[in-house]
Amino acid sequence: MVFPTHYLSFLHCFSTRPPTRSRQVANKGRPPLPNDEQIAEMVIDLAKEISLSESQEAEVSELYFAHFEEVEAFTKNNKGERGANQEAMEELRAGLEKNVKALLTEERQEQLDAFQEKNRPQRGRGGRPPGRG
Known about the structure:
- The protein is mainly alpha-helical.
- The chain is 66% helix and 0% strand.
- The chain is built from six helices and no strands.
- The chain is globular, with a radius of gyration of 15 Å.
- The chain starts with a helix and ends in a 14-residue tail after the last helix.
């Protein structure tokens, strides 16, 4: 299954470590799911950037871990049509974003949007990172 680029953009906004090329090749071109350490790092980076309280950080962390468990289960159980899988992955991503934003004030939601935009991977032609297209 190939993850849609906007889903990956959302996820990459929270991590400073991009997936390694060798792990992508081993996963048939799909970026690997983050491990527990990387998920925790994503939440810590987000918490620092938008000044989450300790309780908000804990709640966001729970959401992220649950989300990636759900994504992992989905990818193991769904090897069907690519388009349908992309739609389902988008729904999962949108659900995570909605749940995270529900914990935030309007001001923090705006900061989250800005953080995501700032950290969105740049794309070259053909949807590939610059220098690869």
